Amino acid sequence: NLSLATITAPIGGVVSNLEAKANNPASAFKSFCTIIGNRTMQVSFQLLESEMTHLSPGQQVAVQPFALSGRSFTGTVTAVNPTIDASGMVKVTATLPNDAGVLMDGMNAKIVVKKSLPDCLVIPKTAVIYRQNRKVVFVHQNGKAIWTYVETGLENTTSVTITSGLEARQEVIVSNNADLAHESPVTVGREQ
């Protein structure tokens, strides 16, 4: 008797992928539905093997879902897979609370790994150009662009660390520097 049937889930969550329809026969091999426990969400992402040493369980990441423009959620790295895949990538898993219930299973997001680098000189990536197959930064000095060879370290999409060649407080030219020559006269406009 169908009216006496009760289906109870062993966990709480949100019903997803409801496959069953009223009065359809049940099948032992077919999923009835999926239940998503959405209080805590997991995000999986990949990073280059060269960046693996900069990430460890317990470290925080910022999760920025594309569907929730301008919103950022803090997650904690729970696992870094010790296996590197064929394309040189490492799988990382982080968890984050979803108390407001706005995060949904399957969302795409930008993941920002925050790393503190004490005593490092960091400049915009746009300041670094290549000359004679070496990295060069133009330093503004006495109204001229001075060609300075540099060595770089860690970088992200917008910034790079300088390991040698520059000192703190030197002014670097970050735009319109591709066609500069050593000791070219320049007028610098400062960003506010």
TrEMBL record:
Quote the cellular component terms of the Gene Ontology held in the record: efflux pump complex
Any single GO molecular-function term of the entry would be:
efflux transmembrane transporter activity
Q: Which InterPro entries match?
A: Beta-barrel_RND_2, RND_pump_MFP, YknX-like_C
- In what residue span(s) does the CusB-like beta-barrel domain sit? 44-114
Q: Where is the YknX-like C-terminal permuted SH3-like domain?
A: 121-187
Pfam families found in the cross-reference section: Beta-barrel_RND_2, YknX_C
Cross-referenced Gene3D superfamilies: 2.40.30.170, 2.40.420.20
Coiled coil feature spans: none
Similarity field = Belongs to the membrane fusion protein (MFP) (TC 8.A.1) family.
Name of the protein in question? RND family efflux transporter MFP subunit
User: What organism is recorded for this protein?
Assistant: Breznakibacter xylanolyticus
